[in-house]
Amino acid sequence: MSAVARTSRQVVFPTVDELRIESIPVPEPGPDDVLVRIAMVGICATDVHLLAGHIGDPFPLVPGHEFVGEVAAIGDRAAHSRGFGVGDRVAVEMLLPCRSCARCREGRYNLCERDDMATGLPRGRQYGVNIPRSEAPGLWGGYAEYLHAPAEAIVHRLPEGIAWERAVLVEPLAVAHRAIARGRVTTGDRVVVIGPGPVGILIAAAARAAGAGRVVMVGTRAERLALATDFGADATVDARRSEDVAADVRVALGGASADVVIEAAGVATAQQDAVRLVRRGGRVVLAGACGAAVPVTLHADEDLLTREPDILPSFLSAGGFEPAIALLARPEVPFERLVTHRFALDEAAEAFDVIRRRDGGVLKAVLEPGRTASPENTFPEKNQNKENR
Predict the structure, then answer these.
(1) 165: exposed, middle or buried (C-beta count within 10 Å: 0-12, 13-18, 19+)?
(2) Residues 171-208, buried b or exposed e (16+ Cβ, 10 A)?
(3) pLDDT over 60 (residue 244)
(4) Angle formed at CA 333 by CA 241 and CA 223, multiple of 5 degrees
(5) What's the start-to-end Cα distance of the chain, in Å?
(6) How far, in Å, CA of 44 to CA of 38, rounded?
(7) 194 pLDDT exceeds 70?
(8) Which CATH class is domain 186-313?
(9) What's residue 1's pLDDT?
(10) Is the peptide bond before 380 cis (omega within 30 degrees of 0)?
(11) Is the pLDDT of residue 386 over 50?
(12) Which residues contact 229 (CB under 8 A, 6 or more apart)?
């Protein structure tokens, strides 16, 4: 086991559209704290929106909320209460719930009142999203070599046999499991998923694991639709080629309507489609983030009143990590195929460019803080503030 470094290199968003690699001191963990050495962190679309300034003003920010790693150091009380030791492989949930507000007490800690930025709080409780780097000790994001997990952090042990390429999907898979739970998916349900991105594909896998009778994926990118069939989708509908998506979905469901439709595309039109594709009295789960102040148009009578759908937003991943870890341990699901691109920490700017341009069929890109930058992937002119590395 390697010794703990005195400093941690991090990707930092100092402000909108600015990315740097900087270093920060690594303090010894307090008695209730865990210091995590990051092995791998996924790049989420949320991170791209954060850099563009589409999600509040969290700057300066260390992004990254889809991270896994190992215990590098741990306080005495934390070791006793959590049962962890140095070298244990762990996943940390992105939200640091207060555990005392009304929402936390009822089990909906994803809605923790201390994370409600609309109330004017100076900072939130989400790793890599709304805790600024200026908040001590500054180790609040997964795009880094080390991360600080205080007493309120929810830390899960990972089985030894799960490769990092699978384990790094635990947070988006937990998001998928929460969506499945919100939709009350059960044995025999006919499920439609809109949006074959990483989360949508993982929702298909989670629906299949929950016993769905038939799963149909709707999207616009043929290669991702094809991949969805390896993750539990029985059929797909290409919305670009379809003249009547609703009719084609009904055919794919064997002539029936969907019991549950889960939207994971993150666009308002997909949310509208979800309501119109579900059967009367069915369940609609809205799991895709569309961005601030995006309107959704529904017809009060035709879509809602006369059809009585249950419309169920699904936010973050509360309660989803344990079933996600269990599913990741099942070798028959090829989760590692979702990780299409791997980059060193120094290559974060290049990784974002690849994602924006959708180069090379990128589906899920990850950063590996311990990885050495590849000469063919490094573009020095884009790596800012080298003196801070």
Answers:
(1) middle
(2) bbbbbbbbbbbbbebeeebbbbbbbbbbbbbbbbbbbb
(3) yes
(4) 20
(5) 24
(6) 16
(7) yes
(8) alpha beta
(9) 61
(10) no
(11) no
(12) 217, 235, 236
pLDDT (0 to 100) of residue 375: 54
Is 70 exceeded by the pLDDT of residue 9?
yes
Residues of the chain with pLDDT > 70, as a percent, come to: 95
Q: What CA–CA distance (Å, rounded) separates 111 from 316? A: 9
Q: Which residue has the tokens 């920490």?
A: 345
pLDDT class for 11, splitting at 50, 70, 90?
very high
pLDDT in tens, 124-158: 999 999 999 999 999 999 999 999 999 999 999 99
What pTM did the predictor assign? Answer: 0.93
Could you tell me the residue ranges of all domains in the chain?
Answer: 7-161+329-388, 186-313
Q: What is the mean pLDDT of residues 252-280?
A: 96
Place of tokens 């709707």: 218
CATH number of 7-161+329-388, picked from 3.90.180.10, 3.40.980.10, 2.70.70.10, 3.40.50.300? 3.90.180.10
